[in-house]
Design goal:
This is Transmembrane protein. It comes from Rhizobium altiplani. Keywords: Signal. The protein is α+β, with helices and mostly antiparallel strands and 95 residues long. The protein contains 1 helix and 3 strands, in the order αβββ. The N and C termini lie far apart (62 Å).
């Protein structure tokens, strides 16, 4: 009996890990100064990158904080900001 329950639980866990694509249905984050899409989409299209792929972009905002954004390439080749992280400001780490 315990083996059957364990096997069922394992099957549920493995099925949950089998996600192969992620869909973002929202509009994403609004661009801020320093974002790749601030002021509009880039003029060049990312033609070689697969649709749905993501990449990071790190920059310093106007207040001096380090920001990391994650972009996803949409089917129309525009970029969507799906995550934004502000790194903590550590005065002794700056030179």
């Amino acid at each position: 009996m315990i083996q059957i329950v364990a096997a069922a639980m394992m099957a549920v866990l493995v099925a949950g890990c089998a996600v192969t694509s992620v869909s973002y249905s929202g509009e994403g984050y609004a661009p801020i100064p320093g974002s790749i899409t601030y002021g509009g989409q880039p003029r060049t299209k990312l033609t070689k990158a697969p649709i749905g792929s993501s990449f990071p972009h790190t920059f310093t905002d106007q207040t001096g904080r380090e920001v990391e954004e994650i972009y996803v390439i949409q089917p129309d080749r525009t970029l969507l900001i799906v995550q934004r992280h502000y790194r903590p400001f550590l005065a002794w780490s700056r030179r």
